[in-house]
Amino acid sequence: EKAGYEHFMMKEIHEQPKAVRDTLHSVIKDDAIDLSGVGLTEEEIKSVSQIYIVACGSAYHVGVAAQYIFEELTRIPVRVELASEFRYRNPILDPNGLVMIISQSGETADSLAALREAKKKGIQTLAIVNVVGSSIAREADKVFYTLAGPEISVATTKAYSTQLIATYCMAVQMAYVREMINIERYQNLISEMLKLPDKIEKILYDKERIQWFAAKQANAHDIFFIGRGLDYAISLEGSLKMKEISYIHSEAYAAGELKHGTISLLEEGTLVIGVLTQNDLYEKTLSNMVECKSRGAYLCGVTSYGNYNMEDTADFVTYIPKTDPLFVTSLAVIPLQLMGYYVSVAKGLDVDKPRNLAKSVTVE
Ligand code: M6R
Question: Is the pTM value of this prediction over 0.95?
Answer without folding.
Answer: yes
